[in-house]
């Protein structure tokens, strides 16, 4: 994971204002970390990459609600965990339906 160049609160404020270079900086900083995290649980590079893509999509779509006081890393990890749990729950339900 690359070291953040700016502090999280500055990046969050910039992203909230629609600053694409700040968003890109956050993406470059946390992408590999989130990918490895997702891969541990999803066991598929395709699904892990999709999870990370969705995390950053949600970050951009919900940028108006970014809090300057919280850590971007923790925020992204929370979104990633939620996406992973949703994916695993959906897969589990699909598997259960196939067994009926």
From TrEMBL:
Keywords: Sigma factor, Transcription, Transcription regulation
Domain of life: Bacteria
Stated name of the protein: RNA polymerase sigma-70 region 2 domain-containing protein
UniProt domain RNA polymerase sigma-70 region: residue ranges: 27-92
A UniProt-annotated Pfam family: Sigma70_r2
The keyword Nucleus belongs to this UniProt entry's keyword annotation: no
Protein's UniProt keywords contain Oxidoreductase: no
